[in-house]
Structure formats: C-alpha cells, structure tokens
Amino acid sequence: MPVQHGHHAHHEPKHHGGHAHPFEPDMLSVEEAQERLLALVSVLGTEEVQLMDCLGLALAENVSASFNIPGLPNSAMDGYAVRVGDVASSSAEKPVTLPVSGQAQAGYVPSTPLAPGTTVRIMTGAPIPKGTEAIIPFELTDEAERLKSGDGLKEIVIRHAPSPGDHIRPAGEDVQKGAVVLQAGHVLDPASLGMLAALGRRSVSVTRRPRVAVLATGDEVTEPGQPLEPGRLYDSNSYTIATAVRHYGGVPQLLGVARDNMDALREKLRAGLNADMLITSAGVSGGAYDMVKDALSEQGTMAFWSVRMRPAKPLAFGLLKAPDGRSVPHLGLPGNPVSALVAMVEFGRLALHKMMGLPVMPLPEVQAVLDEPIHNLDGRRVYARVSLERRNGELRARLTGSQSSNVLTSMVHAQGLAICPEDLLVKEAGERVTVQLLDWHGIPSNVL
Known about the structure:
This protein is an alpha/beta fold. It folds into 4 domains: 22-46 and 209-355, Molybdenum Cofactor Biosythetic Enzyme, Chain A (3-Layer(aba) Sandwich); 53-66 and 180-207, Molybdopterin biosynthesis moea protein, domain 2 (Alpha-Beta Complex), CATH 3.90.105.10; 74-169, Molybdopterin biosynthesis moea protein, domain 3 (Molybdopterin biosynthesis moeA protein, domain 3, Beta Complex); 365-447, Beta-clip (Beta Barrel), CATH 2.40.340. It has helices at residues 30-40, 143-149, 190-198, 237-247, 262-272, 292-299, 337-355, 409-412; strands at 46-50, 63-64, 74-75, 79-82, 96-104, 119-122, 134-137, 155-158, 168-169, 180-182, 203-207, 211-217, 221-222, 233-234, 251-258, 277-281, 300-306, 309-310, 314-321, 327-333, 365-370, 374-375, 381-391, 394-399, 416-420, 426-427, 432-437.
C-alpha cells in the first residue's frame, strides 16, 4: 500500500485570519469521533491479580479493613515512655531522673504495665506499655551523654515536662476496623498498593488489561531484522503502536504484516479477533490498493472512516464480529507513522482506558507562545509536534522540524502537540497556543 507523504505539508495558505476551507461533510470532528468510539467500547471483565501486577489498574471491589491500623497505641518517636505526673516538674534547669525498667521494641507487646515512678526505653512504632501517658524523645534526655561515657541506661535524666498524649499514635489512627479504605474504581498507584499490603492482601480483584492485537499491512513493509529490499521500508508502526498500547495499560500482541491480498488480510484479521481489540495500520485511506476497508466491512460495522484532524484524517473505528460472537473493537490507523501515533494518543488511549475501567481524561495541557507559525491548510484541527522551553519566565513552543506525517523524528523530539483549531488558517508566531503534553516521560521539568 503506498505511503502517503502529506503533499500539502509544504504549501502556504494564501489568506490569513477568518475561517479556513469549508469542512468536508463526511469527516467527523475529533470530539464526535471520540464520542462514537467511547460509545462502542465496553469495560472489560474482572480478575484476581497479585499486587505487584496491579499498578495502574482499576479496583473492581470495595476493600474494607478487618482490623485497626495501627492495631495498638504506639510510639511516634525513639524515646522514653512516662506517666505525666512523674515528670510534671521536669525542665532543662531542674530535670527529673527516673529508673529505666525495660525496653519496648516494634513488633512486641509489652507484658507488664509501666510502673509509677519509672520509665521504659521505647522504639518508634513499638506498642506502648499500659499506663504510658506520653513519650519523651531521647533528645530531651541525657541518653547521648550516658552512651558516650559508658554509664549505661539503668536510669535516665529527663529535661522536659510533656503533655498527655505527646508522641503517642492512637490505635486506628490510619485506618479503623470496618472502614471502606479503597472503593471500586480506584486506580491503583504505589500508595494504594502499599495500603492493600498493609491490610494483608496479596491479590485483589481488578478490571483486567485488554489484549490488543496489532497488525501492519502492505507489500512494502519489512519486519525489522530482515534484509531491506529497494523500495521497501521497515515496520515501525507495529512497534510504536504496540509500545503505546503497553504504555496505556494494554497487553500487545504483534500479528506481523498482512500482504496486499484479500486472503492474507482475512487470515490476519481472523487471528486478531481472538483479542479484546484489534489495531491495524495503513489501508484505510481509500487508495486503489487499500483493501482493509473491504475486509473490515466483511467482518463487521464501521462507525467512521475519516476525522477532521491533521495528521490522522484517514482513521477508522468500528466493531468486528468474532467467531465466538463477541464484538471486537477495531481501530484502523493511517499508514504514516506520525499519523498512527497521534491517532493512538487521541483515540487509542481513550479506548484502552475505558476498557480498563480507568477515568477517560484528556491529556494535561499548558499554554505556550509559538516561536513559529502553525498553518492550517484545509480546515482540519492541526496537532503540531513541538518541543517546549522556558525562556525569560515564558513557556515557548517550537516545531520539531518538518511536520509531514511520514517524518517520525517530529514525534521523537516532541514534548507536546500544539493545536491550531479547525476554524483558523494560521496560528502566528508570538501567539499563545494550547499544547497537549505527551505523557510518555511525565511533565517536562522545563514546563513547571
């Protein structure tokens, strides 16, 4: 299938301002296409998953505490457990000396109460002896001097008069028995996974990850690692798409390359119908050799074929019928690598997140000032690849070289997608522009 190189990319519009070219009636807006896609994608089922494999997944159950955390009152400091009345007169000028009757360590419950007129050396997190009313941090005693001189800790000088409850963590301070700690739908992050472990859970019910079949098409496409014949190109799309699937939480399955004949295409498509979702690249733009449309129409119903955006105008989505009766969502991406990746960001990401029961959220956005113009050639929403730099306290956006949809380096060096709306012919240099931050590496430090 011939690769389209975005032949309009180097032409300048003749007029600035006002509306761009009239909209083509068969093209959906980005929002219309996203709504159709999300309406046809369903949340997947649930499965029990070990905690270490749950990062980024959505809980499918309410999780309640069957015990208090902490289970017993415990010390918030390394220090000395006291009864307040025994040291009420203590100060740096007139300290009180108490005999040390024992030591309390984390993980052990003291067997005897704190006797009046004595103290117990206690470690952080250790359950407090019965009768304890406050903890004196060791810095407010002469412990350091005693240890340095070798006098031992049979007694301790206390230089502070505490208030009741000082440095004592009450039982249930973090979590109370019977409380719902995490609700179904909560997206599991390191903190909540630690909370599940603190509750004694080794596994939890979550909405499972989608299995996503990824298929490239075209006689000109060669698998990486194989000799490259003249006129051929390596299959980069399968790898950008599959790793994007993995980044957004799915489990990719590479189907390889389908050649430009209907039998080969049907065979690969049937293999893809075993997955929860099928993503193809190339073959949806309507060219003479683009047979994916015909093959897909045989397998199911397509919701749209074209979106009012640049890049990624030839973008297909629909439901295919699997042999077992399931409806398998299919996302047909353009063949040009930038188009395919932008479409994954704007559409594939949303589909995968909905399937996983995750919040369907837009990418984070910032406002920046353009270093150079973004031209809109045909009334589509332009997603220009930009790098970001903060200069003189102002966030600036610069195009990452050629914006042709076959130039993958424009995505390699991009930190965001700067948007020129459908109804503008140009976003001039010096104008403010909305930039969607690509979320592959987190928010760039120079944006903050």
